[in-house]
Amino acid sequence: MKLRFNNNFYSITAIKKAIKDYCGLARFSYKKCGDFIEVSINNIKNKELRPRFKQEFSNYCLSCTALLKE
Amino acid sequence: MKIVFRKNLYLREAILASACQFLEDCYLTLNEDKQSYIINISGKKTLSMKALKDNVVKEVVNNALRCGISERNKEIREAVINRALLFSQPRKESLSLSVEKNLEKTAEYDWKDDPLGIFAPWKGDKKKKNNNSK
Question: Which residue of B has its CA nearest to A64?
Fold first, then answer.
């Protein structure tokens, strides 16, 4: 599962923080691809979380970005 | 559902600020192309997507206005805060000068001079006065 976050909206620090907070739930890796930060998610441990894990994670990244900007 | 905002009309901060207010109601991702900002929304609760879209657009417009006003007033706010901070501090130079002057004055006096006549025994004076009157 891959997620692409636009560099101009999402900060790399926020994404790192989100990964750190979610690292107990799945395996994450990220890399910069031009204007985007690409996050790949594997091995989601909880089956119930799988259908909305991607969306929940992107929401959390957004809230982290807003928090860090403040 | 995609909501598109033109870059020349809306600030990025306004989009981000308003998106953050809907994190509990829906799933949001933010993106942009050359000419516009794009908000992708997918529903989380039973709220209808149309109502959600309307609310997001309202919030973005509201935040854009607020950002515009705060951008215009930025210099005034900075000036007011600078002035308030500047005058709230004690004037160290003038204070130290007045203290130094007072210290110099007191250094000139000697306690033995007694210019106010505090050390003179008042009982003796009273006796002398009584003797003179007799």
Answer: B20
